[in-house]
Design a protein that fits this description.
- GO terms for molecular function: 2 iron, 2 sulfur cluster binding; catalytic activity.
- Pfam families: FhuF, FhuF_C.
- It comes from Pseudogulbenkiania subflava DSM 22618.
- The protein has two domains: 194 residues, Transferase(Phosphotransferase), domain 1 (Orthogonal Bundle); 59 residues, no CATH class.
- The chain is an alpha+beta fold.
- Strands 1-2-5-4-3 form a five-stranded mixed beta sheet.
- 40% of the residues lie in helices and 11% in strands.
């Protein structure tokens, strides 16, 4: 390539096996020419806090800043984590994704696509520390600290959402001996990679062997609630919400009926 030529952007779905391509459509290596929406430096998202919260407030009809921000970050993580897992687990390659080097495309205040540097995909490696470090340390750590501080939300709430998503994916869609080894590394270490910090993902999900009736056993529970129940009209707790253990039998039965109505089972 001529030194004056601009590197070509590629959708990460082009690099993923066909079965995983649909999970990678919203991640790009390089900034697409036909940018749709507003391009924002990911490291400066907190400066756009009011726009982000307004988008969720319109969708939900109200709610506290903390609950709205938690749900907005959930959407962001749904865009970020699947392709990062495909790279780490399926391709066995890390994605270099320092927050300062990433650009987020917003449409009406909601995350639409994330753009990494063109050469973000690293070399194949068996070491989980290398495959997950940039995602966790270079991207999620500053992102969560920044966004949580913007609305005085505990970072532990957002780390709980991260851990819930990662643990579920590694134990279901990516289930294998290698995936279990990755999960053991991510959730079983007290130290957070090589940072000297306590691991915010340590045992972030647990399985409750003797849950109250009528809940099934073992009951998979995340560490903290994502605060969705604080939004107007949101009555159904997610199936891994720790608040389920605080309900009496009648309230639990009501929850199961509400979930059956909302999700068909």
């Amino acid at each position: 390539m001529n030194s004056t030529e601009k590197p070509l952007s590629r959708c990460f779905a082009e690099l993923a096996p066909p079965a995983y391509a649909p999970y990678c459509r919203h991640l790009h290596l390089g900034l697409p020419e036909d940018v749709s929406g507003i391009a924002v430096r990911a490291s400066r998202l907190a400066e756009h806090r009011d726009v982000l919260l307004s988008a969720l407030r319109r969708h939900h009809g109200g709610g506290s800043d903390q609950a709205l921000l938690s749900q907005w970050c959930g959407r962001y993580l749904n865009l970020l984590l699947p392709p990062a897992l495909v790279a780490a687990r399926v391709l066995r390659r890390p994605l270099r994704m320092a927050l300062a080097d990433c650009t987020l495309l917003l449409r009406d205040g909601l995350p639409q696509a994330l753009c990494l540097p063109c050469e973000a995909l690293g070399d194949e490696t068996d070491a989980p520390a290398e495959r997950y470090r940039s995602l966790c340390v270079d991207h999620l750590l500053p992102f969560i600290d920044m966004m949580a501080a913007s609305v005085s939300l505990s970072p532990r709430v957002l780390w709980s959402t991260v851990g819930n998503s990662l643990e579920y994916a590694l134990s279901t869609g990516f289930a294998s001996e290698e995936a279990r080894a990755d999960a053991d590394y991510l959730f079983g270490q007290r130290s957070f990679f090589d940072t000297g910090l306590a691991n915010p993902l340590y045992r972030v999900v647990h399985y409750h062997a003797f849950p109250p009736a009528p809940l099934s056993s073992p009951l998979r529970l995340r560490r903290l609630c994502c605060l969705r129940d604080r939004l107007p009209g949101e009555r159904v707790l997610c199936s891994s919400c720790p608040k389920l253990l605080q309900l009496d039998e009648g309230a639990l039965v009501e929850q199961l009926l509400l979930r059956k109505t909302a999700f068909g089972g």
